[in-house]
Structure formats: C-alpha cells, structure tokens
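Thread: Newbie trying to understand structure tokens

Hi all, I'm a second-year student working on a class project, and my supervisor (Dr. K.) asked me to get a predicted structure for one chain before our next meeting. I've only ever worked with sequences, so writing a 3D structure as a token string is new to me. If someone could post the tokens and maybe explain what I'm looking at, I'd be very grateful. Here's the chain:
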Amino acid sequence: MSVLTTEDLLLYLYQETSAEETRNIEEAVGNDWELKEKLDVLKSSLHTLDKMIESPRPQSVLAILNYAKATTSIEHNL
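---
Reply by user tm_fold:
Sure, no problem. This is what the structure looks like when written as tokens:
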C-alpha cells in the first residue's frame, strides 16, 4: 500500500478492509508514529461520536412538524 489516506484508516477502523489491506495498514502504523497518531485521533473521534446523543431536541422536531403542517396547509389552499 503506498500512501495511506484518512479514508483508508477509517475503513480499517470500521473493519472494512481486506486481510491484506489490514496487514499493510497495521505494518505502516507500526513503522510511522505520525500515522499512528492520526489513527489514534480517528479512533478517539469515533468513540466520541458513538457516545453522542442520537436523537434531535424536541424543539427541532416540533419546528419540523410545524413547518410540514404549514406547508401542507398552503398546498391544499392552492
């Protein structure tokens, strides 16, 4: 594997690389401390994203519903 991109590292983290790609990435990370730091930052970011709240605020849902209601009422009046 030539130059590893952020996308390559994300695929690795999501376990979407082939066995050969996985070996190549692990070897590259073992030999390049900057690449290892980049991988560590991505790993940390993924863990943070996994912990985030996955539902919108109630105010956002109400705003969307009110907009949909208003838009639907306007269309029926046309």
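A couple of things are worth pointing out once you decode it. Residues 58-77 form the longest helix (20 residues). Residues 26 and 73 are 58 Å apart (CA to CA). Feel free to ask follow-ups in this thread.
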